[in-house]
Design brief:
By secondary structure, this protein is of the alpha+beta class. It is 45% helix and 12% strand. The chain has a single domain (3-89), classed as Winged helix-like DNA-binding domain superfamily/Winged helix DNA-binding domain (Arc Repressor Mutant, subunit A, Orthogonal Bundle), CATH 1.10.10.
């Protein structure tokens, strides 16, 4: 498995439940004990996040106190620090598909015959 595939899944999962700031994403993934601590720098995370936005797996927004409360933004590297990110429906499908594939691989590699696995997906 490529490191970018694993990082993409982590990023999609990080923005799957609520609007999340870039600072929060980097902090969550890079903290000691976090999934990529010591393996990646913030520039790599920024780059992958831009890629996921360009692939329409994540959307970027500006959040406001007054209407309109949420404004989509056009992505460029300069707007990352002020944007909030949220997974798209396409991103949810991609994340779920990856979970099903990993479950199928795990089931195939299992030494325990007849053991049941049920993939869980939050929508």
């Amino acid at each position: 498995m490529r490191m970018t595939d694993a990082l993409d899944r982590l990023l999609l999962g990080a923005v799957g439940d609520d609007f999340v700031s870039l600072e929060s994403i980097v902090e969550k993934l890079s903290r000691p004990g976090g999934p990529v601590f010591g393996k990646l720098d913030s520039e790599t995370i920024y780059s992958r996040l831009l890629t996921l936005v360009s692939e329409k797996l994540i959307n970027a927004y500006l959040l406001h106190a007054d209407p309109p409360y949420i404004t989509p933004v056009s992505m460029n590297p300069g707007c990352l620090p002020t944007s909030w990110f949220y997974i798209t429906q396409r991103g949810r499908k991609c994340l779920a598909k990856g979970a099903r594939q990993r479950t199928a691989l795990h089931r195939r590699d299992s030494d325990t015959p007849g053991q049941e696995y049920t993939p869980a997906v939050n929508f």
